[in-house]
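I have been asked to look over a protein record a colleague put together. Thanks in advance; the entry in question is below.
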Amino acid sequence: MNLKKSFSIAFAVLMIASMLLVACQPQQIEVIKTVVVTEVVEKEGAQVVVTQIVEVTPEPVVVEQPVTLDWNFGTEPPTIDPALATDTTSVDVIHNLFVTLTQFDPVTGEVSPYLATSWENGEDADGSQTWTFHLRDDIPWVKYDPITGETTQVVDADGNPRFVTAFDVEYGAKRTIDPATASDYAYVDYIIKNAEAVNGGAEGVTLDDVGVKALDATTVQFTLQTPAAYFPAIAGMWVNAPQPSWAIDEWAEKWTEAGLINTSGPYVLEAWIHGGELNLVKNPLWVDADNVQIERVHGVMITEASTAFALYENNELDSTGVPLPEMDRVKADPELSQQYLNAPNPCTYYYGFTNNKPPFDDARVRKAFVESIDRQSLIDNVLKGGQVAATSFAPPGIFGAPEPGTVGLPYNPDDAKAQLQAYLDEKGITLADFNAMGITMMHNTSEGHAQIAAAIQQMWKDVLGVDVKVENQEWKVYLQTIKNSTPLEEMPHIWRLGWCADYPDENNWVHEVFNNQSGANRLRRGCVDATCTEVVPLKFDELTVQAQQEADPAKRADLYAEAERLLAAEEAAYAPIYHYTINSVTKPWLTRNFPPLGGVDFFNWKLDMAAKLAAQGK
């Protein structure tokens, strides 16, 4: 038989395979069937196409899985817009997406350079203070494409690459202050010249009069109403982060969605499935990208602490808080106890009273409810995390904070009964009449908050004989409910919140949270009418302003101590309950920190992906 080769025509390759991502480990690909059309030949006087099917096993292929942190945000972030964020969940995301002027050292809490490399202060002729910040010029604005998975630098209309500038800082701060933005956190900037007047809609002043000005692309200057040594910390807060005006102008409120958002930090927004998950990926154009070891953050939004803890025990979360019912087991377990951390945390858990809603418009009622709370019993029997009983607001470590237990109203059931009885007698009503008012207490949805509420609800029943109805709402809705602009009839009588330090000074506590003219004033202190559109300053409010303006540290501390006493004991405007501690477990393959100030910094954490996959059996 004589076969004569005529010509070759092509190779057609069809690959049928599925590849699993394995971190730094070879994965054997399935046998690949390769169909090869080799040639046309002559066979017995005719042209024949000879087809050969060859099975080829390629060399093992190594595919690396991104170093991935599995994290629980605990709830849906209400926003990731720096101008609008007011809660820790939102700030945690923003801290990883946007650069700020300064940052807190994650260990010491000291203010350190970030976008700003240096700064100095000076005095103006009118007695105001200026702070001038000098910025680096190499941090790019970037945009992530969820379809291609690529991160690219943003360019302007002329095709020029955009870098973060002082003009972006000026825009960001003024956007927060602009009343049209409706930022609930704008009050932290009221120390800036004309910020309070502009934010409050005063006539004769505009955003151009606000004391924030870019002197050039790398220099921004803030002019303050009064001197403040702590201002570099305020300047570095998320509300004063540089913001991308072009993206906000183009997309309005949608600008923070994945695929539209422009960011400047160590991570970019990969995906945000509202109510489901929020994922971050490393920004390859970040100036310090080589030192960002965790490449992806897979963030879920599980509100139930018990569910999150179960995922942790199943190696599906890398770090989480310890649910209250699990505290004893974690401490006793040989393995979990080694993963457990208990440490101070500069936050305070408190119950606010709606001060202009009867019957809590009477200080005697508020005092009765405060003095009925056995904080130490709550800590010993429910919390079990070494928390510190709080009778005032600011925790240890904050400048001007009184020593725990030295200011405020301690547990005193006898006086609590007497205070309530005095109120009932004056009003000519019985306890049954009081209960008929339908006292409500509200918290955001959380197993832990529910357990605390149930314990305190029982204390009020046992000590006062008062029936309190407990309600809860999802976090984003809840924050809107307890704003001081909510109609009074829709406000609960009592509501739960926590406050964590933005910077370590009492100004951030008693003044910014409770001052009824320059602070958030969720308590509705000094309201003239039900809508609280007008307030009368009380002695406490005058003290916090005086302390803000006082230059002598010793005198400032004395003023704050008196302000704390007035608020907690004389007004009994709220019920401080405990100062937080960290009660967390972390897998041995994750090395993380617990910054005392600012949001979590995923970009500083390290994760051994091989050890994690091994524990997961992958």
User: Anything to note?
Assistant: Residues 31 and 57 are 5 Å apart (CA to CA). The first helix runs from residue 88 to 97. The chain has 18 helices and 27 strands. The chain has three domains: 4-62, 68-319+583-615, 354-581.
